[in-house]
Amino acid sequence: MSVAQIIAILGSIPLFSLRTFLPAFLTALLLSYPEYFPGMGDVAPLPEDAFLSKDWVLIVLGGLSILEIIGDKSTEIRNLIKGAETYLKPLSFLLINLSMIDEASAEILKEVQWAAIDPLWILLAIGALAVHWLARLRKNFIDFLEDIDEDDNLFIGKISSWVEDSLVLFGFFLLIWTGIVMVVLYAAAIGIILILKKRYHKKLEKQKVECTTCGERNLPFATQCSNCKQELSEIHKIGVLGQRKEALVKDRYEHRLDLLSHKRCPDCGNKLKSNKIQQQCEICGAAAFNSPGVQEYLKMQNKKFYKITGLSFLLGFIPVLGFVISAVLANIYLFSPYRRYISRSSSFFTKLFIKFITFLFFLFGIALGFLAAPAYILMRYYLWKKKFLAQVKN
Ligand SMILES: [Zn+2]
Ligand SMILES: [Zn+2]
């Protein structure tokens, strides 16, 4: 086992924790056609009968990489494969690294007694575990981002996905040019992420408010203690991203509506798990739409609808930007509070249709935003409300 081999294995760990196929494809491409990679001209390509340099392997890996890049931009597909990915990634890591072991080492391996296990195997086993562990860390991070921006209104999910794609590409080139630098850089980055994660959890824990009756620690925006149901006196407002605001709540009832619009329990402020209207909080057992009920919820949404539609008319006089701001505001304040209670099973064509309509409205909104923005909001608000009402009847 050479130093270069160790660095290659260590360096590919973070790449495989981000993507299953892209690093595999890049590796296969490099080993088959090193002359296309700047600075790699004098590396001898793999023999033609090697598994990784076969044309069909390259084509399949390339196709899968493209699907992976596209699929990861869709919240639905991301969620669908999220669970399996943490196992697929170490598998991909192992397969690629095993097929990279050159003929010579394979010969040597044959002669090695089983008692003397080649340290390469140990390194690969640890590497696969590390990929699995990092892939899980990444999954938790994505869950956290989705919690903040559930419908990808702020494009946090898409941006993080593009950042990951570029990190894999950048990391791969860094690895083949200056392997050791790449390993050190990525190790440092992972260290920083772990520290930030710890800090974030500490901060959340610190923000909790102790119940004066039973001592239970409650979320800062809870209206009642999740344990003994005692009314809490100091309630913080909740922000757009589900964060604690410094301002304290004056109107409890309005705040309970606000919590519901974030799909949170109106009593204890914890996230509600199901999409159903009729559901109980898993933490404190409170019924979701008991008080306030569905009618009050609709009333609050309608009020917001009039305000934002009026605002969008004014904003529409700013070319392009006015329409974009209106659409983002409407997504966050008008559509999301309904959408959060509707399962995400709408068909591919419905989505395509909505994208197409949005694009048309956007074109129209370049010059005539004061008409296009309110019309867009009106149409989509009506559709989301209709879906929400259907869910209420269920
Ligand atoms: Zn209590
Ligand atoms: Zn609750």
UniProtKB/TrEMBL annotation:
Superkingdom of source: Bacteria
Protein's UniProt keywords contain Transmembrane helix: yes
Keywords recorded for this protein, A-Z: Membrane, Transmembrane, Transmembrane helix
Protein name: DUF4126 domain-containing protein
TM ranges: 7-31, 51-70, 114-135, 167-196, 308-333, 353-378
Upper lineage: Bacteria, Pseudomonadati, Bacteroidota, Flavobacteriia, Flavobacteriales
